[in-house]
Design goal:
The protein is an all-beta fold and 285 residues long. The protein has one domain: Beta-galactosidase, Chain A, domain 5 (Distorted Sandwich), CATH 2.70.98.10. It has one helix and 22 strands. The strands form four sheets. Strands 5, 11, 12, 14, 15, 16, 19 and 20 form an eight-stranded antiparallel sheet that branches. Strands 6-7-8-9-22-18-17-13 form an eight-stranded antiparallel sheet, with no helix packed on it. The longest helix has 7 residues. It is globular, with a radius of gyration of 18 Å. It starts with 11 loop residues before the first strand and ends with a strand. 6-O-phosphono-beta-D-tagatofuranose (TA6) binds next to strand 19 and strand 20. The site of 6-O-phosphono-beta-D-tagatofuranose (TA6) has 11 residues, from strand 19 and strand 20.
Length: 285
């Protein structure tokens, strides 16, 4: 367990969460959040008076070596499957260390977690909980060799109904469709869902928005240090195949993920660093 001296009474406390995994509870003037040391995983964020912004599966595991199904999984140092290794890398199933906490002049609560690593790179994750949820994943190459990696904040959003939402901001962007296994270009209309969707949009720094009439809100996903946006909903068949995800839970979630994956992978020279930043905000429709 981390040093309780980093706690901020009334704003940031360490407790035992699901599966007795160490969890950080954050209360800001605007919102509340929960972050597990397991995977430095933001599992909850909710502005006062709004529905939760993030989806969390009721069937999620909370156990050593297992990814949490929902919230914001940190995908590093690779995205997707890799023979003989866990899909989406090991950062999300590693126990991170809480190394700093602060209350900002804006009254937002900020915390920094570090990935214990001696593999020639340093990884820190800064979370700022206020009226918005800001996250920054900083990777530094501490070795003498170039370091190539993928990263992604694989965010699960809480929505009222997948059939009613639309996503804007990706018009005319090329993407790889992992369902149909083809390359295509997004049209001009907002993205809507009628089945499983698993698309990796390339070369895009665009801010995207989820328009959710069911909850009467628009969620904005602004990013920097990211060339890829992934849009995913498992729909029925894949939901049934996922043991840590309810068969019907696909209705109330959508993933809009920000990172650098596949052809957008990053290579750092010795001593260089890269910061992937995402700012999540919401407003009434
Ligand atoms: O982000 C889309 C994706 O790569 C999908 O293909 C699906 O596998 C999803 O991630 C979840 O992956 P996980 O390893 O968390 O089950």
């Amino acid at each position: 367990m981390n040093d309780h001296s980093l706690e901020i009474p009334g704003n940031l406390t360490l407790t035992a969460g699901a599966g007795s995994l160490p969890k950080i509870l954050v209360e800001s003037a605007f919102s509340r959040a929960e972050i597990y040391l397991h995977g430095a995983h933001v599992s909850h964020f909710q502005k006062h008076g709004e529905p939760p912004l993030l989806f969390m599966s009721a069937a999620s595991e909370f156990a050593a070596g297992k990814p949490i199904r929902g919230g914001v999984p940190i995908i590093f140092p690779w995205f997707g499957p890799r023979d003989g290794h866990p899909a989406h890398g090991f950062a999300r199933t590693t126990e991170w260390e809480l190394i700093a906490t602060a209350i900002l002049p804006s009254q937002a609560v900020q915390l920094v977690l570090r990935l214990p690593s001696s593999n020639g790179y340093g990884v820190e994750f800064m979370v700022t909980v206020g009226d918005q949820l800001s996250m920054e994943l900083r990777v530094t190459n501490t070795s003498e060799q170039p370091f190539t990696f993928e990263n992604c904040l694989h965010t699960y959003f809480h929505i009222r109904s997948i059939s009613d939402i639309s996503i804007t901001g990706l018009s005319n962007v090329h993407y790889h469709d992992n369902v149909a296994d083809l390359i295509a270009t997004e049209g001009h209309e907002p993205i809507r869902f009628e089945g499983e969707m698993d698309r990796v949009y390339f070369n895009t720094t665009a801010t995207t928005e989820i328009v959710d009439p069911g909850f009467g809100r628009k969620i904005r996903i602004a990013k920097s240090g990211s060339q890829s946006t992934v849009v995913w909903n498992p729909w029925v068949a894949k939901s049934i195949r996922m043991p840590d995800f309810g068969d019907e839970e696909y209705v109330g979630m959508v993933c809009v993920e920000s990172g650098n994956v596949a052809d957008d992978e990053l290579t750092l020279s010795p001593g260089d660093h890269a910061v992937l930043a995402v700012i999540l905000s919401s407003e009434s429709l």
